[in-house]
Write a structure and sequence with these properties.
Blueprint: H1 2-27, E1 35-45, H2 73-76, E2 82-83, H3 92-100, E3 104-115, E4 125-131, E5 134-145, E6 147-158, E7 162-172, E8 177-181, E9 185-194
Length: about 200
């Protein structure tokens, strides 16, 4: 009788332990739940005297309808980078201020939701866009290493001028607007925690 009682007690303890582990696991921020809304505004400085990193070439002699490295439909519909609806954008005010300024001209306003992992696992988002002033190509990588980090590599090809490259890697805070500076153009960036896909 005592043996049966002991076995029943052990079974109860094992069941409670299992339920406790499941509850803890459910409450933990799993890697799959590390989603963020990423939003950027890219603008050029009007009247800038910056020297290009690469002089003009045949590739930038004329403004083509689309850059040679334009994103394919598959890249633009990459499920890892879900475009945000207009009502979720948070840099509209900054974009309008730049538009009203005589010193700057906004060229790009991009926003998407993505999963953010460690530096080796997180995926860089390609940026390949054509604007009236030139084409942009490069990537933006968001990753976590205790804190959020941004790795930005963006080239601005301007017909008749050449190429300007902005490369930066910095630690950032979510829910704050960050600025990446170059004498020829700049980037505003904001990252906001987002719920995982349903």
């Amino acid at each position: 009788m005592e043996l049966l009682h002991f076995a029943a007690v052990r079974l109860i303890h094992a069941t409670l332990l299992l339920l406790g582990c499941l509850a803890v696991t459910a409450s933990m921020p799993a890697a799959a739940q590390n989603y963020y809304d990423v939003e950027i505004v890219v603008f050029e400085l009007l009247g800038s005297n910056a020297s290009p990193d690469t002089p003009p070439s045949a590739a930038t002699a004329e403004l083509l309808p689309a850059p040679a490295t334009a994103a394919t439909p598959e890249q633009k519909s990459d499920s890892r980078f879900e475009p945000l609806a207009p009502d979720r954008l948070q840099l509209n005010t900054e974009f309008q201020r730049l538009r009203n300024s005589k010193a700057y001209r906004p060229l790009l306003h991009l926003a998407w939701r993505q999963q953010v992992l460690g530096p080796r696992m997180s995926v860089a988002r390609p940026i390949m866009e054509q604007t009236p002033s030139g084409s942009f190509s490069g990537s933006l990588k968001v990753y976590t290493e205790t804190f959020l980090h941004i790795s930005l590599d963006l080239t601005f090809d301007v017909p008749g001028e050449g190429s300007y490259r902005l490369r930066d890697n910095k630690r950032v805070r979510s829910r704050e607007t960050h600025f990446f500076d170059h004498p020829r153009f700049g980037v505003l960036l904001r990252i906001t925690p987002s719920p995982p896909p349903s």
